[in-house]
Structures are given as C-alpha cells and as structure tokens.
Amino acid sequence: MATASLHSLLLKTQTTTNGYFFKNPITPPSQNISFPNKSLSITCATQVQTQSPTTPKSQSQDRIFNFAAGPATLPESVLKKAESELYIWRDSGMSVMEMSHRGKDFVSIIEKAESDLRLLLNISSDYHVLFLQGGATTQFAAIPLNLCKPNDSVDFVVTGSWGDKAFKEATKYCKPNVIWSGKSEKYTKIPSFEALEQDPNAKYLHICGNETIHGVEFKNYPVPLNKDGILIADMSSHFCSKPVDVSKFGLIYAGAQKNVGPSGVTIVIIRKDLVGNAQEITPVMLDYKIHADNKSLYNTPPCYGIYMCGLVFEDLLNQGGLEQMSVEKSVRSLMNVPFTLEKSELEAEFIKEASKEKMVQLKGHRSVGGMRASIYNAMPLAGVEKLVAFMKDFQSRHG
C-alpha cells in the first residue's frame, strides 16, 4: 500500500472543543511551502477496540511492528528470502558473508543490485552508482572535498538537523553559506524557492530531501542559480519511496537503513563529469574517482548489506516499481510522523504500553522528545492500523 495511505490513516485529524490529546507538532499545510503553527488532535480511522489490539494476520505472530527511524523495518518477504539463502547462496556452496568481494558470485550480486536500482530510478549512463560505507554523515565531508576547492562558495538550504550538520562539516573544506534556515521556526517549513537568495557563483546547492527528526519533506526541488552549479540532495530517509528525476541532480546520496536495506551501506549517485577533481587532501576512501574506477570494490565493501539492498530493489520492482510507492503532494513528511501528548507525563506510559502490544521504537529523537512513528516502505498497513487503534484506546483511558 502506498505510504501516503498509511500516513493519511495515522494523521487523520479533527479539531476538538475540549483541548487536544494527541498533537502533531506540524499540521498538514494549506499550501506547498509552509505549515500553520498550531496543533491538531489525531483521531482513529478504525473502530475503538474494547480489548488490547491483537497482531493482524498479515504480520507473523512473533514479529513486532518496528516504527524506528533507522535501522528500520524491512519487508518480510525480503527477510524470508535472505533467511533461505543465509547458509548457502544458490549453488555457491557458501554464504554471501563468506564470499570474496571480487569473486564472480558477489560481483554478480552487486552488478544486479546496481542494475535494479538503475531501473527503479531510471538512472542514465551519465551517472555512477556507488555502494559505499560510512553513512550519509561521511558524505558531508566527501562532497565538498570532491566537488570544491577551499575557497569555493556553496549554498545550503537548512530545513532540519541533518542539513545543519552537513553545512557545519562543509565549513572545513569550502565556503558554505546558509541561504535559508527554518531553525527559528523549529524546522516546520520549506522555503519558497523564488525567494532564495542564491550565490550566482555557488558550486552547488545542497538540500536534505526529508528531515527525519522534525518530519519536513521536499516534494519539489529548487534549481541552482549558477548555470554551472548543481543540486545535491541527502535523500537518506525517503530514498526509493517515490520516483525522482535523477537528471535534476548532480549528486544524490542516501544511507540505506531507512527504506532499502540494513545499516552499513551508503549509496551515492553522481554525474560522471563531476568525478576526478578531488582536493589533494581528500582521503583515498572519500575519493569518488577511486570508487568509480573500481566499481565500488576498491576495498572490501559491506557485502551482505549490498546483497540485502539488492533483494529490496528486486522486491520493489516486483511490486511494480516506485510508482506504487508514490505519494500525494504536501510538505509534511510521509516517512516520519512526530507527535506529542498534551499531558507529557503520559508519554513514558504510552511508549511502555505500546511496547507490550509489540509496537516499538516510538520514542521521539532525543533532540526534540515526544514520539515519532516512521512508516517507511516496509511498514505494513496492519502496523499503522494497530497503532491508530492503540492511540484511540489510550486516549479513551487517559483523556
């Protein structure tokens, strides 16, 4: 089921006359660029349960619903296939975890993973697809080191904590400018692109496509003012959740542990003409040319993680591609849903009771508190239905 439907079920809202119980810190927008600064109550789209919610039949009885922001839940079919191939992969006589990363078996795995990802995102031959390590955070340094000289200017649109971290890291290797920040409004907005005061000489314009902590997502993308400049996006938390026109970007990067695999794999999609101009101080392991020339096999990559990503890509293709995961347009994130209780003293009890009902990782990010439900591609409808029913039941008992 499309993520939009899961999100709509969890965030179906109505105004109440006697205050709010569950509050979404950010409301769905009336326009495409900002949110009204008021809270709404969350109501349930399913009937109130008189007994504790039970695990729906579509989910294995011994599986919990994992709402973590990452590492996140994986498709059950993918996990079962990996389980069946864990001991011996096909006719290789060994596990993927035991293979030489340069042997024919693993080379076939990584080549198929790349081919399937290219199909999913319609990535042209003008781009390299790299499977790297170090998380998206390592790319905060790798990007300016590869694309800039020390005195080059770059522009940042900061819509949340991750964009801010990327900016701060870039200050070590180039001259970044924050041309817009949502920090003063607690990261609840996306700017009007026409109002951005870009540097006409900026080497690139950097955005974070979806901010997991505050739940703000770009649905459209700005265009660099510099005709030779490029758009760069951290897409870690909504990568492969919907179609994207890769040709609009010079570089896309994403940690795999949200939508496409386990932690340990970082995917970089970079236009080929941007590779080969790294600063002299660039460490070998951060040089895109080194990895491109060696087809992501310069050193031992996260082999099993890449294998798992490949299974997810295959599963997405079998479902009909990313069009089946596409979502409605709004600025509100459809991946991460933060919310609070009016009575904050009940939040610990809410998390405790939810855990007993096999719903875990609902505690909000440590920097903002509250609660957060992450509903990536692999979260089944049954999980969201159960959470909504539990919220309604909790409200009836504590409201």
From TrEMBL:
Single GO molecular function: O-phospho-L-serine:2-oxoglutarate aminotransferase activity
Keyword tags: Amino-acid biosynthesis, Aminotransferase, Pyridoxal phosphate, Serine biosynthesis, Transferase
Catalyses which reaction(s): O-phospho-L-serine + 2-oxoglutarate = 3-phosphooxypyruvate + L-glutamate; 4-(phosphooxy)-L-threonine + 2-oxoglutarate = (R)-3-hydroxy-2-oxo-4-phosphooxybutanoate + L-glutamate
Gene3D superfamilies on file: Aspartate Aminotransferase, domain 1, Type I PLP-dependent aspartate aminotransferase-like (Major domain)
Record-level GO cellular component terms: chloroplast stroma
Enzyme Commission number, as recorded: 2.6.1.52
Co-factor requirement: pyridoxal 5'-phosphate
Any Gene Ontology biological process: L-serine biosynthetic process
Domain annotation Aminotransferase class V: ranges: 64-326
Top-level taxon: Eukaryota
Biological pathway: Amino-acid biosynthesis; L-serine biosynthesis; L-serine from 3-phospho-D-glycerate: step 2/3
Family according to the record: Belongs to the class-V pyridoxal-phosphate-dependent aminotransferase family. SerC subfamily.
HAMAP family hit by this protein: SerC_aminotrans_5 (MF_00160)
Protein name: phosphoserine transaminase
Species this protein is from: Coptis chinensis
